[in-house]
Fold this sequence. Notes:
This protein is an all-beta fold. It has strands at about 15-25, 30-35, 40-50, 55-60, 70-75, 80-90, 100, 110-119. A four-stranded antiparallel sheet has the order 1-8-3-6, with no helix packed on it.
Amino acid sequence: DDVGRQVVVLNQARDMVGNQVTTITASTSETTIVTAAAGVFNDLTSLTITNSSSTATLVTLKDSTGGTTRAIYSIAANGGITIPFPTPKAQATANNNWTLTCGTSVSSIYVSAEFVKNV
């Protein structure tokens, strides 16, 4: 801690944990959900995706803009999912965005991404 005592915390120290909230509205374009930081791997620890539309959609998760697909999730109409990653979902390369792309343009997709910063 700040005064030199040993502290054991799951995944990362408090000041190295981030949360970013993003809304994707009527789009099938790739959208950043965790913004890149120079020299930092942002490893996901939790992802919550909510669909406010009456239309189901698929969302594609990538760990860099235009990069490799890391997961595809089916989001029900007026539904959502929360995905905890007990072992953080590792980002392949530092200084990259995490992105989501909707397969169908729907009213709004709300995303909350929690991540740990690793250097």
